[in-house]
């Protein structure tokens, strides 16, 4: 499972799906969005990212399944147009 922070979720999903960057997400084929949270400040988002990264796997699974029990790709159907 990949946990990250971004200011543009649509663009980040495009990058993951197209494997624009070689790294963890590309190596492990992380291209399905199953959970996300929105924040008003980047500092709050980074704080939450660190918290989730420290969770054990079972706790991450619980977090996902509470909102998305079937692990549906929440970015399915998004249009990706970037320069």
UniProtKB/TrEMBL annotation:
PROSITE patterns: GIY_YIG. The keyword Nuclease applies. Residues 1-64 form the GIY-YIG domain. InterPro entries: GIY-YIG_endonuc (IPR000305), GIY-YIG_endonuc_sf (IPR035901), UPF0213_domain (IPR050190). Belongs to the UPF0213 family. SUPFAM superfamilies: GIY-YIG endonuclease. It comes from the Bacteria. The keyword Ligase does not apply. GO terms for molecular function: endonuclease activity. This is Putative endonuclease. Keywords: Endonuclease, Hydrolase, Nuclease. Pfam families: GIY-YIG.
